[in-house]
Amino acid sequence: MGRLATLVAVLGSVAIPFVVENSYIVNVCIVIFIFVILSVGLDLVLGYCGQYSFAQGAFYGIGAYTAAILYNNFDLSFWVTMPAGILSAGLFGLLLAIPSLRLAGHFLAITTIAFQTIVYLLLTQWTELTGGQYGLPMRPIEPLSLFGFEVLRVEGTTSFYFLAFAAMAVAVLIAQRLAGSRLGAEWKAIHDDELLARAIGLNATRNKIVAFVASAALAGAGGVLIAYYLGSVYPTDFSIWTSATVVAMVVVGGRATIIGPIIGAVIFTAMPEVLRATQDYKLIIYGLLMILAITFLPDGAVGGVRRLIRARS
Amino acid sequence: MQKLWTLIGAALLVAGSVTLSSAAEPVKVGVILPLSGGSSIAGSEVIQGVKLAIEEVNAQGGVLSGRQIELVIEDDESSPTKGTMAARKLIESDGVVAIIGTYNSAVSATAMKVAAEHKVPMSSGGSTSVSVTNQNEPGNPWFFRAFPGSDEQGTQSAVDVIEVLGKKRLAILHDNSAYGKSLADTFEKVTVEAGAEILAKESYNAGEQDFYSVLSKLRALEPEAVYMGGLVGDGANIVRQAAEIGLKALFVGSGSMMTDKFIELAGPASEGFAVSSMFEPNTTNDYGRAFAERYKTRWGVSANVHAALGYDSMTLVAKAIDRAGSTDGVAIRDALMKSDDVPLVQGPPGTMAKYDEIGGVSFKIGMAVVKDGKREMLPFNR
Amino acid sequence: MYTFEFALQILVNGLITGSIYVLVAMGLTLIFGILGVINFSHGEFYMLGGYLGVVASSAYGVPLLAALPLGMAGVALLGIAAERLVFRPIRDRDVTNSIISSFGLAVVLQNAALLAFGPQPQLIKTSLSSISLSAFGVFVTFQRAAIPIITAILVILFHVVLRYTWTGRCLRAVAQHPTIAQLSGVDVNRVAVATFAMGAALAGGAGLMMASVFMVQPGVGNMITLKAFTVVIMGGMGNVHGAVVAGLLLGVAESFTSGYLTNDFRDIIGFMMVIMVLLFRPSGLFGRAVDRA
């Protein structure tokens, strides 16, 4: 039953660019896919492992800027900058994992916020490297050539849609495998009671590091994609507000589920677009929805639906 | 769990089969401006100029033999991502034939790529940075700017400071936005070439507020004039705090600072404040003065440079649509490029919209000073 | 150029700025220390205090010093409303909930202010600003000079309340051990209300005073929140005295960076200091027990 539903979802997504008349919806979907990568990644460290990270926006930015800097200074193609972006974001994730080994709860949250803010400030101030407020330009994705033969060409909105969809699918699969593996179970154990987990011999240190690195790497991938999608990188997209939005996606969607963050990403990306009509009140409604969702759906949308199903049966 | 997947799959299919129709009788023109956040003051002023232009055009029968122009307004929140999405929505969902926008250069730079991709002409809503028009292919521009760019503004300020105001010992204070930084860099380059001495060049985060210490430092250096590159709120703060801290220097600001609000916020310290200005209500440009009167009648407040450029931008687009005789983007763009005979409210008397091959317009920028608490424009040929 | 007078001016600037940080951080650390809530909308109390001041002075002609207690009372009411509507329902849940909820609240408050007051900066006009004092080469307006004095009064008042009143003891009890406090008869709800009222009032007062010096816009809360968190981390989360010292320290550090190095680093210095503290003394310079991992 689950397999069938997944198949329907996949086929539906694949059909969208061909069925929908105006490509505005296709473009919104691309952004949704990218945010799914971010939120699913964050769920690993926040939902499963229980480590409060408000730095997803920073890793998103690190991925994007790595790609931009490599392109602008070394003329490298997407097929090199993508893995580079993932790698560099992952390394920074390692950096942030270090305080997590000694701090927890509020303190870790504040540390990740400090990290996020410092990265943002560096992006805006270190003009020589990052272009500062001017940003950096990007060119469209170059064709992939192997042994002199052109293998893949990603040009135009529809192609980018499928690239983003494929990336999202890979990210979701990776997250699902990690979450369902022994590592995922160990993460949950650490989340529930770290002292106890250590007492029974789990290597909390290694697990936490893996969680941070994995979530950062995924965010980095998302960042590379958005850089190519927008055709440029500017610091504004990688601020603490982005981080908070991704956290909201995970929490409101449903922590420690894979589908929860996906739902959250859809809600929070589509919402401003849907609310465009109520221009002046748009952000107020957005904030209110955040508060209401957190207050009344502590387990997120997934938890709410589960409770509904259980109540019926 | 499985039911959730089904729901999602179904939702996606439903979303996929929704189609949207576009364009009825009125001709739609899109507007992208920052209507919330830090630049929203500017955004709201530009849009008033745009709206006045629309009302006048529609009152005279609209375009293309009687079709009214309808504005579709989007808020870009000063974000490149939102601006790009707004551009896509306007073009693909709403079917606009042209776009007025936007104000922050970083947003314009990204959004114009969408416009160019879909061949929809875009006319600046205040974005001044030349980095945006530089993205245009020479002879094939899709982004238009009906006034001089940031480098010219910075240069003109620099020239005026040295020659008209006669100051040689200078300090620069700019915010670290693309706008503030580019003005500061150009100003420094030109004044140094003319033999001036830059005693200090400091930056601040827009919205900073506390300038006391950096101003104390400048006071110790004793500059004759301080050039500010940034937005009106910070500019007012700086001028006021400078007076409080005993810094006696002439303050020269950038275009967006010369507003009545500035004078109100800076108080008596604003006396003597000078700004390179393309438009003031008492400009010597007849066309501009007439506009200022109409604007005052319509909105009850006096016009400033933002309203003026919004008005010019929209007027040019409306005329181009009419001259193109169709809603085809390429035709409108081509008509726009031939606007040499359309007068602008900004600039010296007789300024016309003569676009160069990358979509920019050049004219001599004036200087306005605050005298007796009021903005006054000095003659353009000083 | 770098004379003694210059240093003194820079120091005075720093103490004034620092006083504001102290007020805002004190409220924040109180809310965290007693209720375990991380309040990201704290800066909005500051902002709203500023606007209340603007309304009082421009619409009703209330002089600045009279507007201060009025503004503080007004923001205190807002704090109570926030506690009741936003934070109490999620009191027993983990900290991410309060972080996200308070973010949502911050967005709501900021945009409500934008709608109500418009995006233009507003200033409280006061005759006190034209009286300028000048001694030892230090220039300061009367109104700015009043800020550290008012801050000191508020801090002392606060300390007295915390130490010597019944309410104060209840607050401290809950901070030390909520369950035992409850068992001893402390009404946690009342404590929560009192905490938010006080915390918000302090921030609102700071905002009001600053609205006469700097101007208020809907977005001023953002930077203040971040700076307040910096101070709270440095001083030790929940440590009120630490907040006082750290607040002044941050103000002075920023001022000296701006005056002696370059203004570009002004905001970064705070974050550098925070990183140092988090790396080497995560419980804060004067800290209390940290949640050990």
Structure characterization notes:
The complex is a heterotrimer of chains A (313), B (382) and C (293). Chain A is mainly alpha-helical. Chain A has a domain at 23-238. Helices cover 76% and strands 4% of the residues of chain A. Chain A has helices at 2-19, 23-48, 56-74, 78-100, 105-125, 127-130, 156-180, 182-192, 194-199, 204-230, 240-253, 259-274, 282-296, 300-312, and strands at 136-137, 144-146, 149-152, 232-233. In chain A, helix 4 runs antiparallel to helix 10. The longest helix of chain A has 27 residues, at 204-230. Chain A is globular and about 55 Å long. Chain A starts with a helix and ends with a helix. The model of chain A has no long low-confidence stretch (mean pLDDT 85). Chain B is of the alpha/beta class and 382 residues long. In chain B, helix 3 packs parallel to helix 4 and helix 6 packs across helix 7 (178-193). Chain B has 2 domains: 27-148 and 284-363, Response regulator (Rossmann fold), CATH 3.40.50; 151-277, 3-Layer(aba) Sandwich (Rossmann fold), CATH 3.40.50. The longest helix of chain C is centred in the N-terminal third of the chain and has 32 residues, at 4-35. Chain C has 11 helices and 2 strands, in the order ααααββααααααα. Chain C has a single domain (4-280), classed as ABC transporter involved in vitamin B12 uptake, BtuC. Helices cover 74% and strands 3% of the residues of chain C. Chain C has helices at 4-35, 42-60, 64-87, 95-117, 142-164, 166-176, 178-183, 188-213, 220-235, 240-261, 266-280; strands at residues 132-135, 138-141. Chain C has 293 residues and is an all-alpha fold. A two-stranded antiparallel ribbon of chain C has the order 1-2. Classes of the chains: A mainly alpha (313), B alpha/beta (382), C mainly alpha (293). At the A-B interface, helix 1, helix 2, helix 12 and helix 14 of A face helix 1, strand 2, helix 3, helix 4 and helix 7 of B.
Could you say how many structural domains of chain C there are in total?
1
Computed Rg of chain A: 19 Å
Second-tier CATH architecture of chain C: Orthogonal Bundle
Please state roughly what percent of the residues of chain A sit in beta strands, choosing from under 5%, 5-15%, 15-25%, 25-35%, 35-45% or over 45%: under 5%
Helix and strand element order of chain C: HHHHEEHHHHHHH
Oligomer: heterotrimer
| Molecular shape of chain A | globular
Tell me, what's the shape of chain C?
Answer: globular
Low-confidence stretches of chain C: 289-293
Widest β-sheet, arrangement of strands of chain C = 1-2
Amount of helix of chain C: over 70%
Report the count of strand segments of chain A: 4
Biggest interface, and residues per chain? A-B, 51 and 44 residues
Let me know the largest β-sheet of chain A. Answer: 2 strands, antiparallel
**Beta-strand content of chain C:** under 5%
Task: Give the strand order of the largest sheet of chain A, numbering strands 1, 2, ... along the chain.
Answer: 1-4
